[in-house]
Amino acid sequence: MKTVAIVFLAVLVVSVVQAGVVHSENRLGAEKRNYWCPNPLPIKCIRRQDKCCLDSDCGLGKVCCNESCGNTCREAVSYPTRGREAAIC
């Protein structure tokens, strides 16, 4: 019984580590290109609706940013801001 539990935990740990590596690679690619999400728009929404999940969902020169109304494609800026990258959907 202990062996089964140890094998299960080992598989779980490897899966979590691999998922973290993939997530890091998606975000590091954006940092290497030196562009960021612009400051968030000062609006509030009743319901969030994601229009993108990754930068690749947006057109050229745009990034997927986390806004109060949901993830949306915005024009990238070349300097750090308070803007937040969208979490993977």
Automatic annotation (TrEMBL):
Q: Which residues form the WAP domain?
A: 36-75
User: Where does the record locate the signal sequence feature?
Assistant: 1-19
Q: Which UniProt keywords apply?
A: Signal
Q: What is this protein called?
A: WAP domain-containing protein
| Top-rank taxon, per record | Eukaryota
Name one cellular component (GO) term: extracellular region
Asked if the Swiss-Prot or TrEMBL record annotates the protein with the keyword Transcription, the reply is no
Organism listed in the record: Argiope bruennichi
Name one molecular function that GO assigns to this entry: peptidase inhibitor activity
Pfam families with a match to the protein in the record: WAP
